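Sequence, please.
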């Protein structure tokens, strides 16, 4: 078989499992995952390279109604992902029926005439048997495609079959990226994201969305990588929550993020975390730019 290469835009509502799927396929943590909607804040590429094919998946922030500037920037990024690609992979939560947001995603997808659409009906483990037929019909009709696969991204179930469907739409082309490249993101950005993931997993209510992380310094010191990062919160009242009793919370976040970082870098890591209050950062274009959330 000749070698195939293509770019696949992955779109869908927040929290449906887009990043989980891409991490599983690439075998690397290119995009962080949590049960909080809007975990992914900007476009991230995840590349899988096999002897017969290379696929660059473009993970996007979940599409939803824009509220503040951060959310608006995230939606713009997701929309931009649909240009210049070979396949649009729409991920949905198969356990629930299509809603208004999915109707608007379908409209967006249909404006890209000629680009094949593949449906990933994810979270099949939550789908009740009596709903299978109805949900499959509703989603395939809405997105105008018969090409779908039901999957469980967290377990890798049917993911190989999904890749087969995607490959059937990709052109015969040489690989574009070096074989050891698995993302277009810098190690610095991934480090900040790993810290943010731990915060998302461990906080509730407004804190997850009020948090950003910036890497301030990065030094290679023999077998040790020294990284200092700042956690930015929106309000003064959030600072003590982030620190925890006697600094216990931030310490725990640091420990868990360090473990992921050591795996990604293949190196020992010393991670130093600080907390800074920057009121209204989500509305501030300059800060969004510094955080690279504006593309
Ligand atoms: N039960 C179940 N949970 C899943 C499945 N796939 C993903 N999840 C969980 O769903 C949650 C959201 O996953 P993400 O991969 O962060 O979702 P996303 O679509 O990237 O979300 P955004 O970045 O917010 O747009 C996480 O808690 C995952 O572990 C699945 O097939 N079954
Ligand atoms: Mg995501």
């Amino acid at each position: 078989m000749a070698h195939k290469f293509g770019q696949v835009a992955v779109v869908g509502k927040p929290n449906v499992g887009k990043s989980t799927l891409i991490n599983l396929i690439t075998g690397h943590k290119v995009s962080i995952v949590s049960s909080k909607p809007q975990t992914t804040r900007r476009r991230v590429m995840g590349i899988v390279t096999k002897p017969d094919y290379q696929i660059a998946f473009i993970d996007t922030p979940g599409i939803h109604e824009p509220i503040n500037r951060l959310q608006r920037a995230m939606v713009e990024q997701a929309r931009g992902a649909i240009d210049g690609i070979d396949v649009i992979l729409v991920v949905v939560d198969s356990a629930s029926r299509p809603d208004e947001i999915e109707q608007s995603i379908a409209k967006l997808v249909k404006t890209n005439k000629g680009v094949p659409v593949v449906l990933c009906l994810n979270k099949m483990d939550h789908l009740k048997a009596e709903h299978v037929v109805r949900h499959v019909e509703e989603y395939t009709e809405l997105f105008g495609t018969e090409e779908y696969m039901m999957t469980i991204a967290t377990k890798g179930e049917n993911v190989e079959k999904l890749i087969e469907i995607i490959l059937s739409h990709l052109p015969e082309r040489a690989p574009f990226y070096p074989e050891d490249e698995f993302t277009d993101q810098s190690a610095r950005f991934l480090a900040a994201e790993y810290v943010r993931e731990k915060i998302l997993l461990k906080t509730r209510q407004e804190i997850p969305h009020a948090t950003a992380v910036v890497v301030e310094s990065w030094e290679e010191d023999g077998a040790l990588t020294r990284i200092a990062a700042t956690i930015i919160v929106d309000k003064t009242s959030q600072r003590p929550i982030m620190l925890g009793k006697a600094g216990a919370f931030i310490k725990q976040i640091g420990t868990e993020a360090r473990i992921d970082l050591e795996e990604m870098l293949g190196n020992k890591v010393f991670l130093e975390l600080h907390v800074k209050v920057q009121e209204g950062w989500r509305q501030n274009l300059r800060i969004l730019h510094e955080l690279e959330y504006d593309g």
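The beta strands are 4-12, 44-49, 53-59, 87-93, 117-122, 148-150, 212-221, 224-233, 268-277.
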